[in-house]
Design a protein that fits this description.
Strand content: 15-25%
CATH topology: Rossmann fold
Shape: globular
Number of strands: 9
Helix content: 25-40%
Oligomer: single chain
Length: 274
């Protein structure tokens, strides 16, 4: 096996269609989270929905709201999402992505030689990296050699692309949204005490304070395993860990959705899964 080339086994990449593979993605939980988020939007006549840590846009693409804003600190990711909006067919994508090409693009990114555009680097990094770990887990390859992980992911992303068209994407830190009011915010941060896959280094205590302050004028929802006591869990579901981070693959974890602040609807209780 070449260098950090990784052969993956069948269950790890049996992914639903219409989504970008992204470490920490909530796509597998979307059928649970989207109705909860949507109800908060609809019941409160909210006109603006914001995800300051949108990642692969695997939730925001399913939300209905007059205005949707997706932001992330990763400028290459945002460049790719913006590119997909103007070229749903992703015509910059090569027909195949070999290990050698993957390694070449990764090296270009590492050295900053700018042979490839930010959106192209992101496309190769997310479509061809093991587990969607963006040049951090090696090159993904089917263990039996019969499938192209890159092409499957690329086709899925092409199907997702039209759903991104009217989203406003921004490259910025979550704190840039401190002055927004009357919005629904959904945060999906790198979970505390797990492997950090984001470029954004978070001071969690400052992050919690930011959410508290933001909730004075907005509805704030956040995914995590655990939050401080003043954050209320309104939904939870046990799931299996698919990739190593802080936990062993196959170990069970409990995904939770929290809210904070004066706003809390008792109606949310019906979503709680014990």
């Amino acid at each position: 096996m070449k260098g950090d080339e990784v052969r993956v086994h069948k269950k790890e990449f049996l992914t639903p269609s219409n989504w970008m593979v992204y470490q920490g993605s909530k796509n597998r939980l979307a059928k649970f989270l989207v109705p909860i988020i949507q109800k908060h939007i609809d019941d409160n006549n909210i006109k603006t929905y914001i995800e300051p840590m949108c990642g692969g846009a695997n939730l925001i693409d399913k939300i209905k709201c007059d205005k949707r804003i997706g932001a992330d600190i990763n400028e290459e990711l945002i460049a790719l999402l913006k590119y997909a909006q103007i070229d749903n067919s992703l015509s910059i994508a090569p027909e195949v992505c070999t290990f050698e090409h993957y390694a070449e693009v990764r090296e270009d990114r590492k050295l900053g030689t700018h042979k490839y555009s930010p959106e192209y680097i992101a496309l190769i990094g997310y479509m061809a990296s093991y587990g969607g770990r963006y040049f951090d887990g090696g090159y993904g390859r089917d263990s039996k050699g019969g499938r192209s992980i890159y092409n499957e992911r690329l086709n899925n992303f092409k199907e997702q692309a039209p759903n991104l068209n009217d989203i406003e994407f921004m490259c910025c830190d979550y704190q840039n949204f401190s002055d927004y009011k009357n919005c629904v915010f959904y945060f999906d941060p790198p979970y505390k005490n797990t492997k950090q896959y984001s470029k954004q280094s978070i001071d969690y205590n400052s992050f919690y304070d930011f959410l508290r302050k933001l909730s004075e004028n907005n509805i704030v929802l956040v995914s995590e395993y655990n939050m401080p006591d003043d954050f209320k869990c309104i939904w939870q579901k046990e799931r299996k860990v698919l990739q190593k981070s802080d936990r062993v693959t196959g170990e069970k974890a409990i995904e939770k959705l929290f809210t904070v602040g004066e706003y809390y609807s008792e109606e949310a209780n019906k979503w709680l899964i014990n």
